[in-house]
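Message: Study each token:
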Amino acid sequence: MSDCKVNYGGQAVMEGVMMRGKEFSVTAVRNPLGIIVTRSQKLGRIYTGKLRRTPFIRGMIVLVESLVLGLSSLSWSANVALEEETAEGETKQEISSAWTWGIMAVSFIFGIGLFFILPLLLTRLLDPVIESSILFHLVEGVIRLAIFLLYLKIISTMSDIKRVFSYHGAEHKTINAYEHGEPLQAKYIQKYSTAHARCGTAFLLSVMVLAILVFSLVGKQVLWLMILTRILLLPVIAALGFEITQLCSRHMSNPLARIVIAPGMWLQSLTTGEPDDEQIEVAVAALEEVIRQEGGRAAPLSV
């Protein structure tokens, strides 16, 4: 096993991978000419300071961090991946930050509506036959999980998304190999799994399941109040989900931890794909650059 103590992580972007370290994030993308280009970002204090290491608070900071860093990396990767030289030597117009943020805002609202408000409204239709508050929230949770799984299944069939999911697999394979002390070369990396215990997919599944418990404690109220609680309690549920995911990832030798994280590991079969060697090469470029930016340090990253 490697003696590394930094919990590197990241996400897939268009034709590339973003890797996050202790102090830097690096995005690597293969441009239309086949060349891998990278961009490094120094992380702000909010992402590296004391609050980022404080239990429960850190879960909400990580949620914001994932959105901000992810959006920034996705916007930059899209501009690199779509860049083409015209006959006159001019480049295509870049995707504006305002437009990207607008898409993210709409997507965030859509996500809350689809995964939290719609299941509530559908369950309310069953009010005449559901008297128990606990049963009501259980049914709502089952509907939420069904919508979530159906959504992942549908988008996993789209060709463009499939390619992003392959880069997601490249990210996981590369981190798995690094954490096992393997040389960062495709022939060694390819033997590893595309699943990883710290994956955001496992985190999202934990949020879906924890929502059943948290909303049950609130009880069955008038509709407008139930909608409000589903919005306001989302950061709390996310914080709890983050702590559980991180705890399990640190104790994978424990049978109970493996049982708890198993559904999240399985679910990654929908959000990751088997990468080719060129995609692995991009993930390696991102990881090696973030390690280089941090001076090859193996300082602990508390998560």
